[in-house]
Amino acid sequence: MSVGEGVVLDVENLRMRYGTRDVLHDVSFQAHRGEVLALLGPNGAGKTTTIEILEGFRMRSAGRVEVLGVDPAHGDEAWRARLGVVLQSWRDHGKWRVRELLDYLGMFYAPYSTSAIQRPWNTDELIAAVGLTEHTDAKAMTLSGGQRRRLDVAIGIVGRPELLFLDEPTAGFDPQARREFHDLVHRLADDDHTTILLTTHDLDEAEKLADRILILAGGRIIADGSADQLSRRIAGEAEVKWTHDGQRFVHTTTESTKFVYELFQQFGESVEELEVRRASLEDTYMTLVQRFESGQGDTELRSLEEVVR
Fold first, then answer.
1. Is 57 helix (H, G, I), strand (E, B) or coil?
2. Residue 132 and residue 177: Cα distance in Å, rounded?
């Protein structure tokens, strides 16, 4: 996925304190135009607080934050019109019909349309994009949980946001709906250059969608990089499996590319059912969080963040 030049999110030394308790400790990261970031972490890690500060709904205790070039603590309506938010909980629009609701909400974005970005999104195109064409005239209260979630997404992007916040976006989706939603996220990032920050407990989803993974634990960013970068730094080794002359082989190596090349040099096309497996994002995530929570390897985790950046 290509990423544009402009910095959309710029967070430096963000701190948040409730009373005498710090819940965010010098959190720093950036996101660029068209980039998809996944913010992962256990419950209580500070994800919701971070998102609410970026959205301008919560004041920070210290640090510098710029969202689309503006301090969210002072963002006006024109700035907010450039954001999209899809919350985890269902909004109560039960008596509205799908088209009527999106038409109505879209009107609020029309004054903020520009030559570069036409707002709002055409209602029919938007409904098709989230897979609700067959339910255009249905009342929201009659939709299934997955369909309501699609409507939530439509509400979040009706204003063609430059920055989109997604909180557990595919909760309640069946596998087909989840795949279609993933396609939509990729289109938003690739075609519209929308920057997307998502939180999810579905690590497989994060690995498929995100250009970069941020892992937050104990109010600190303990890792920042692509899923592949993180797995390489943590695991170091890859498992190579293949079949030759009907026999199955398994080999563990730190140089998988070189090993596979030499394997084909030796056996050529007789190598079958080749698999190369590095640590999954779930493996990496669990390792990092467990190390942090056990108090082990704090120095290593800090240096990992610097190396991966």
1. coil
2. 11
Helix-helix angle 175-190:145-157, to 10 degrees: 10
- Euclidean distance between CA atoms 260 and 271, whole angstroms: 10
pLDDT values of the chain reduced to their tens digit, one per residue, 309 residues: 444 469 999 999 999 998 888 899 999 999 999 999 999 998 889 999 999 999 999 999 999 999 999 999 999 999 999 999 987 665 667 889 999 999 999 999 999 999 989 999 999 999 998 889 999 999 999 998 788 888 988 999 999 999 999 988 877 677 887 888 888 899 999 988 999 999 988 888 898 899 999 999 999 999 999 988 887 766 567 789 999 999 999 998 878 889 999 999 999 989 999 998 877 788 788 888 888 888 754 544 444 444 444
CA distance linking residue 219 with residue 214, whole number of Å: 12
Parallel, antiparallel or unpaired: strands 238-244 and 271-277:
antiparallel
Task: Report residue 32 CA to chain centroid gap.
Answer: 13
* 243-246, long-range: CB < 8 A, 24+ apart: 243/271, 243/272, 243/273, 244/270, 244/271, 244/272, 245/270
Q: Minimal CA–CA distance to 93: which of 161, 174, 149, 171?
A: 149
Strand-strand pairing, 238-244 and 220-225: unpaired
**Do residues 137 and 101 lie in contact, with contact meaning Cβ atoms separated by under 8 Å?**
no
pTM: 0.80
**Rounded to whole angstroms, how far apart are CA atoms 129 and 122?**
10
Classify 172 as helix, strand or coil.
coil
For domain 7-228, give the fold. Answer: Rossmann fold (3.40.50)
Contact 36, 190 (CB under 8 A): no
Q: Nearest-5° angle of CA 121, CA 198, CA 236?
A: 140
